[in-house]
## 1
Amino acid sequence: MQNLLDFDAQGLTDWFAAQGEKAFRARQVLRWIHRFGETDFEAMTDVAKSLRAQLHEKACIVPPVPVRDSVSADGTRKWLLDVGSANAIETVFIPETGRGTLCVSSQAGCALDCAFCSTGRQGFNRNLSAAEIIGQLWLANRLLGATPNGERIISNVVLMGMGEPLANFDNVVAALNLMLDDNAYGLSRRRVTVSTSGIVPAIDRLREVCPVALAVSLHAPNDALRDELVPINKKYPLAELMAACRRYLEKAPRDFITFEYVMLDGVNDLDVHARALIALTRDVPCKFNLIPFNPFPDSGFKRSRPERIRRFGKILIDAGIVTTIRKTRGDDVDAACGQLAGQVVDKTRRTERRTVALMEAKS
Ligand code: SAH
Ligand code: SF4
């Protein structure tokens, strides 16, 4: 059975062609699935009866299954989705005045092991399929409904949930294509953001195939510290990352890169770090988004104090860099950045290795 949620427009057209069906039929079905949220081929009334019967036989439309729905006091909503084999992922909806943002996951777990991230702490199980990625938007649209004047509630999508999107490149791009497609969700490139820890060759590929807005998780102003906090830095150090950001801007829908910077008390939040960031990013038009660290058990880090974050931000602002401090949303339901853990069966057995390492360190 082919899950049609796995296809972007091109994929569906190719699959239809293989069944001897024309491209406009694929577009019709794409609209039914993504615009109208239909899962029943019988309800697709403008599709020929014979084709409906054929689809019924060979295909299905199966989104991930929500197993928990939590609503935070601030209106943030978090869904836990079952993706089989004891793996669960999380999707978060953040309502704000004038816009609604859906934060989407791209992997069950993450292999990159950033020191301050609870998803990284769990280890990696597998890439999500395109159906599981776009299925989060499909499902959230259905569960949230529309505004009283019929508009969709989700206006922006950020790939900032569990996982490293650029480590699951093809499936993420198929899902991005659907987000942008007028026959599907029709979002503008500016309203779709991929957040990456900095996989340089994949940033270049994204620029070529689907340049949406880009956020880069910087977290440190020099290689020595970044090697510790974001281990992928050892492979793609800062000079290469900054060069990739400059190249990306040639095609980006916005004229700046967003640098995310988690504020870790006493680790990366001193004035000297802020000044080094100004020098590092001198040739990269950028905005900074400072994220107060969201704690999780045994993380070993503390959140910087609010006045420290403000002062750090002021140093950047005084140097002419637009800087915002991310509001912590949904932390009462563990929906804040870096708190998304779902439940992942760790194929890398990272947790086990870490426990052993901790025991060795203690003895
Ligand atoms: N893997 C991608 C996207 C997912 S994480 C990336 O790393 O960019 C989304 C953002 O949350 C990243 O900037 C990430 O570094 C940050 N983050 C991770 N753990 C966090 C924590 N405990 N507190 C605050 N932000 C965190
Ligand atoms: Fe993976 Fe991003 Fe977490 Fe790093 S911060 S471990 S890349 S999800």
Note: The radius of gyration is 21 Å.
## 2
Amino acid sequence: MDRIRLRGGKPLEGSIGIGGAKNAALPLMAASLLSEETLTLSNVPHLADIATMAHLLQQHGVDVSMDGGNGTPEGRTIHLNAGKITSTLAPYDLVRKMRASVLVLGPLLARFGEAEVSLPGGCAIGTRPVDLHIMGLKAMGAEINVENGYIKARAKQGLKGAVIRFPQVSVGATENLLMAAALADGTTVLENAAREPEISDLVQCLVAMGAMIDGIGSEHLTIHGKPSLRGATHKIVPDRIEIGTYLAAVAICGGKVELTGARLDLIEAVAEKLVEAGCEIGQTTRGISIARNGSRLKGVDFLTAPYPGFPTDMQAQMMSLMAVADGASMITETIFENRFMHVPELARMGANIVVHGSSALVRGVPKLTGAPVMATDLRASVSLVLAGLAAEGETVINRVYHLDRGYERLEDKLSACGADIERLKD
Ligand code: UD1
């Protein structure tokens, strides 16, 4: 298994290209199941999770082809044709690798009247049920049974429009139901829907495929179902978590970097906290610039929340910054129940963090020291990279396959800006 070795203490200078959003690409790829015509997606990041979704779709019979070079600034283009579906079963072996596989449930059920999708099960950051996905599809007339670890769904007469109010904001459930509703008979209203930019990206693509959807960007989406959708071409929105992570990298290392292709409006809640902590951030013609010169970061409090709140997917990275900030920081996680696995690893590097339930009190220390650490999930892993970039001495991060799920050429992008980071191949 590959490892990453870092030696901390170098400021970052230069520019970093931002790729397309993994969390937008995954539902967009699943949306190809809604049409017998080709869906072409551009700005697709080169990541392990994208390959897993491509594999799952191929296993359903989707014809998947890709062009564009690995690592080109514009990412790759992927063509998906679901003209001949051979199976509506999403097997355990693929779903357990990646929870977002459950996003094939809505489109398969809506177009073919049946789908059998393995239950994703828990993951490192919490139990993560899919009850809201199931509740919404049932409200649209599907018969759903959970048997032998599979969600077995049928809607032989097709899905019907319904009014669905989510008791809790869910990105995945909003996406699954949006896709299902696009082919349902009648109008579906989703209330308390997620508003993440990846949802708006999916809405835009569905509209390009011929769907009629009102309320884009709001928590109230109205979908007028169509009997069929056409093919389309869609460019994937920039990855706001990749943007936030590199902003955090510059914040913790100091220096000045331009993130090309980045948009400030996607990451305002994080940018505001970084400015409060002492960084200078601005939109440029090519992207976002960030600088931190001289003075130490200041501790700031924050709370994760659905968009436009502070993203849970940036909580771990921000905690690394707070570990070396001047003063204390109270961090509260409201989305996932077990998302502090990076805390013991940061503590091994000298951080002073106390967890009480869903809050972590971080008392900033003057410096962290390098240590061998273990990556536990995608964002926890990258928080250890950030800590290592700021630490004195050498840090070796094990189990970096987590990083490869969500960060394209992370070590190349950081080392091009002066970081001392390399991948050790095993
Ligand atoms: C997506 C993102 C993930 C991000 C998360 C929250 C993708 C591929 N992944 O995950 O990176 O951290 O949004 O921004 O886009 N819940 C239920 N029942 C359900 C569904 C969700 O109780 O049926 C709960 C979850 O356990 C969690 C909360 O709702 O506590 C939010 O989860 P959700 O927004 O659905 O996250 P994902 O779509 O899985």
Note: The pocket of uridine-diphosphate-N-acetylglucosamine is lined by residues 23, 26, 99-100, 126, 128-133, 168, 170-173, 198, 312-313, 335-336 (CB under 6 Å).
## 3
Amino acid sequence: MATRASGSRNTTSSSDADRISSVLSEKRRFAPPAAFSAAAHVGSARALSALRAAASANVVAFWEEKARDLLWFRHWKKPLVWKHPHAQWFVGGTTNASVNCLDRHLGGWRRTKAALIWEGEMGEVRTLTYQQLHGQVCKAANALLKLGVQRGDVVAIYMGMVPETVIAMLACARIGATHNVIFGGFSSEAVRERINDSGAVVLITQDATVRRGSFVELKSAADAAVKKCPTIRHMVVLSRCGIHCTMKRGRDLWWHDVVDGASPINEPAQLDAEHPLFILYTSGSTGKPKGILHTTGGYLTQVAYTTRMVFDLQEDDVYFCTADVGWITGHSYVVYGPLMNGATVMIYEGVPNYPAPDRMWDIIERHAVSIFYTAPTAIRSFMKWGEEWPNRHDLSSLRLLGTVGEPINPEAWMWYHSVIGGGRCPIVDTWWQTETGAIMISPLPGATTTTPGTATKPLPGIEVDVVRKDGTPCKSNEGGLLVVKHPWPSMLRTIYGNDERYRAAYWSEFPKSRNHPGWYFTGDGARRDADGNIWIIGRVDDVVNVSGHRLGTAEIESALVSHPRVAEAAVVARPDEVKGNALVAFVTLKGSAKASTALSEELRAHVAKEIGPIAKPEEIRFAEALPKTRSGKIMRRLLRELVTSGTAKGDVTTLEDAGVLERLRMQEEE
Ligand code: WT7
């Protein structure tokens, strides 16, 4: 069957039709290997259906049973209190995330099991057993307490992929501080915005991080950020690279000075189930990033359960999720999920093609990794680098593969399956979001027959549907909007400091009505096929998915407009073979400014400075004017069509000046 390497992810563009028909013709089916099913937690389609039906009959009782797998100081009084659109799970219960990740494993032989195997980009390897990780977390917790961090305070973490990042997160969780991890690839402007929005009192960072063989300074970026962060009282700096840092007296402290000498004994805080565990910023369709707030008991419950089931975790697995801890995947499936299950977690510091494009396969071989979880964009890069790289390595330790972040195109799925999985490993395509906190739609590897391109069906305890704008259910294969119909334990609780925006972004599309109690709108378009499998079509708002990361076009536009020469900007996406989508920015200039290649480079660098290199547009197109409606709204839909198909044939009746589009089109043909 012929499949395209990538399709449009924009529901509004004309090439959706092609994409839908291309996936509709997908006939390949992959049943779980018998030996895999025989040893799996859920080993047959029938067992999974029964589980799903039982959970559906009483969603709350189902999750209560899963919550019992955690350690609680005090049992909850009510499993769910739902006051639209706010959920509270396991109300009255008290627990602690770090206790569930660490202390609970110390009673038996697991205390000497490797919790983290870390590999630095330069090749160093450090292993921390559960006992050792616990000791480090207790020390860091005591150090934070000594710095005056109190329960409920926010601590920002701006670091790379080193064990201390995990230690810092768990130390916060231990004392009841709410962590706000800021991706180490963000610029100082982005760091400042996230610190100020969250009101963080301490920033934990490192001198520099290692990337592609060189040092990327984080401390100096942190210094620039906190110049305008009045709430920051201290900065704790890990010396990762041994480079010189300017330390501000009274404010800045070295990690080794405050942590190494601290006591390894720390009494964990007994925290309410609804105590805020972390804030994580993600892009939205308008303006500034949204601080997604997750709390403790419900989050831990669903993350622990999904890790065990979706990855069919067994005691001797070596589990490797390539996500950076700066994203939700790193929170849920590098740190909390696997550690709560007592797994051995592989973490890698650097880029996947350093010193050569086989770094991942080399790691898998040397550490006998058995579960590998990565993003479709990474898989497409691996494909491009060529199969000679994985073929140099013995990948027979692998038994399960996973993907997350965007729809996986069938060609990449097949490559992953045959070249990496040797045709023997099931693939779990997992759909979820920063907001959902944990996996929502996914196969169970011992039970589900998979088809390339679909995350299949909701997990037990999760009620999703594909509906029309008026809330009526879509017919099979009819495209519609993906909604969640019942509260789930790891759902976001609000947008930090902006509950109005929380209501508007997720709960206004399908408000409470006579027919239903109000549904959560995911922002994704989807369809359900005749077998009930869900196919994600893409985002329906002005949010684009580039390399598996969600970027708000509005945020990039406002970065562009903050440049002195730019008058207006509109950012849209076009399909890209490796990244899934590439960004194209249409820019109009102020008065005397002249378009040039140099200016285009300058604007790209400006976006990198304002947000980070991930947000850099692939292409800048200078325009005389942007297509607008009579009321002055930029018609991004037309620009999207223009960059994907070269023309804009859609409805242009609301366009104020038809000539604008004509001129943009001609520019395209030049
Ligand atoms: C958006 C969420 C969840 C961690 C990584 C991204 C898209 C995610 C899949 C998948 C198709 C997917 C959706 C979703 N997405 N996983 N398996 N198949 N699309 O987290 O930045 O919060 O983005 O990513 O559009 O809404 P995020």
Note: The first strand starts at residue 78 and ends at 83.
## 4
Amino acid sequence: MTRIEKLSKFLPEDSAALVLTPVNRFYLTGFPSSAGVLLVFGGRPDKAVFFTDGRYIEAAKLAVNDCDVQLSDSSLARIKQLLADEGSVNVWLETGITVAELSRFVQGIDRFSVSAPDGLTEFLTQTRAVKEPAELVKIKEAQAVAQAAFHHIADYIRPGVLECEIALELEMFMRKNGAQASAFDIIALAGGNTSKPHGVPGETAVHPGDLVLLDYGAVCGGYRSDMTRTVAMTHCGECEREVYELVKSAGEAAILAVRAGICASEIDKTAREVISAGGYGKEFSHSTGHGVGLDIHEAHTLSAASTAVLAAGNVQTVEPGIYIEGAFGVRIEDMVVVTEEGCENLTSITRDLVVL
Ligand code: ZN
Ligand code: ZN
């Protein structure tokens, strides 16, 4: 079944969906565009239409196979006509659209009942969370590029090099080696800056004895990867090593707990218990992980508040960390695919402390 067919099956017969967010349009049509509308009718997948503008129309006609492709104009007349022809009563939009987009459609197609119910977004989120084999191929490709970049950067980092230079070098390496882009703004932090989980790489230089935290990923075929390694420059202090080993044990315990059918909050609890037992519970200040795919953060969040249950095909990060204000921080992040029996770890870079 195509993704458009799945959505059509989910929608009630008197309803239609207008998919407006670029990420969901890409997921459903396989075509990347910054503008467009995908119209899908409940129970009639063959009637779906992807409207896009003159910048994309030629490429879209060649690339989109699962629905009709039509040139959009600035009015919503054509969409209104199709909705009327198919007898749609309700028109559903995603919850992630802007207020301006919502008001444009509420006013522009006022003969229909337009709303943004949670159900549509939830359906797309949950469908996207279970990766198909072809999606896993792209995520693995992105991870392979990121891992090659790790080996490259381990040779590159030396005393005196700046955080921003490390970030640039990682990005250039990934782009030169098959990545479309960096998966998100690269985090490369040295010394005292490592205590800020999402610090921004700046002019700080690496010094002997520093920890260096590298959190980055690549994009291949629209799909992202995500990994973090914390390495030491020339040598590692005793306290830093103790914290490193604790974070490593927490991650390993959490990865062992991952399997289809387990509650996402259980994975978080597993990691948190190890870190709390080691005396650093308060210093583990973020959730244990998140889903990765077309977006860098997508379902499921591995946190105490999560009610999600993991399913085979989910791609999740497991990334406990300890951040000691004014001193240093350690995070180790792996990306795994959930299976019925456990998980497949997509990150094969050593979890042992690397001293450069
Ligand atoms: Zn990360
Ligand atoms: Zn992450």
Note: Residues 215, 226, 228, 333 surround zinc ion (ligand 1) (CB under 6 Å).
